[in-house]
Amino acid sequence: MDCCSSTCCLGDLGFVRQKLIGSGIAFITAGGTVLEKTLGDGEKLLVDQESLVGWQDTVQLGLKTYAGCLGCISICAGGESCFLASLTGPGRIYITSMSFSKWHRTLNPPLPNGK
What is the pTM for the complete model shown? Predict the structure, then answer.
């Protein structure tokens, strides 16, 4: 469980996440293309938090605001968040090109005039 208010509430990640340990095969569901990237010690990467699939426990997860106050207003009005997931290495991370919410919006766009 993650009880950090910034990653739980503001990061759109929730506070309950699954942890995989041990050896063997695990099947993880993700949409689009999944990219595995290995971060070096102290290397940082900013990603849309909806695109984050998984990360090793050696990777530090945080949030970073972007675009300032006015940019945040326009981003929120466009259906996006004001925050990016900040990942700091070392360790492996897994990100996807299309989250399920983006996939759903693509296949089921809102109809014009609310019809």
Answer: 0.68
